[in-house]
């Protein structure tokens, strides 16, 4: 996975809205999978802790030294993807933010 900037990586990660996990819990257990979440879940994770990264399209959530969970909204639907550690490291590097747990 080689990207020139955070925007191209995020565009690639958020382009796929096909749910490969039935729930956020399932997605969190299988890094690299996407699920649809409800609006309440999307805003819960946005507000429970400050996002580690946020732009106009999406935000990254992490608690401790775990990989990021990427949340985004498209039209009236909400999605989450449990990132792999390689995806987390790529976003951290391209966006110039610390890895989870290094704050």
Question: Can you lay out the helices and strands and say which pair or pack?
Answer:
Layout: H1 6-15, H2 24-29, E1 34-37, H3 39-48, E2 53-54, E3 58-61, E4 69-74, E5 77-82, H4 85-95
Antiparallel strand pairs: 1-5, 2-3, 3-4, 4-5
Q: What count of structural domains?
A: 1
**Cα Rg:** 12 Å
On the 0 to 100 scale, the average pLDDT is 91
Structural class: alpha+beta
Largest sheet: 5 strands, antiparallel
Strand order of the largest sheet: 1-5-4-3-2
Unreliable segments (pLDDT under 50, ≥5 consecutive)? none
Helical fraction: 25-40%
| Percent of residues in β-strands | 15-25%
**Number of separate strands:** 5
Order of helices and strands: HHEHEEEEH
Structural overview:
The protein has 103 residues and is an alpha+beta fold. It has one domain. Helix content is 36%, strand content 21%. It has four helices and five strands. A five-stranded antiparallel beta sheet has the order 1-5-4-3-2. Strand 4 and strand 5 form a beta hairpin. It is globular. The protein starts with 5 loop residues before the first helix and ends in an 8-residue tail after the last helix. The mean pLDDT is 91.
Throw out a few tags for this protein.
103 residues, alpha+beta, 5 strands
Summarize the structure.
By secondary structure, this protein is α+β, with helices and mostly antiparallel strands. Helices cover 36% and strands 21% of the residues. A 5-stranded antiparallel beta sheet has the order 1-5-4-3-2.
């Amino acid at each position: 996975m080689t990207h020139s900037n955070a925007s191209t990586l995020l565009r690639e990660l958020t382009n796929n809205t096909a749910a490969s996990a039935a729930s956020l819990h399932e997605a969190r257990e299988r890094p690299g999978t996407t699920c649809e979440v409800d609006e309440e879940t999307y805003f819960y994770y946005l507000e429970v802790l400050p996002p580690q990264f946020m732009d106009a399209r999406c935000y990254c959530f992490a608690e401790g030294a775990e990989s990021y969970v990427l949340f985004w909204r498209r039209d009236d639907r909400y999605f989450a993807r449990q990132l792999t550690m390689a995806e987390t490291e790529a976003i951290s590097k391209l966006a110039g933010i610390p890895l989870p747990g290094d704050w």
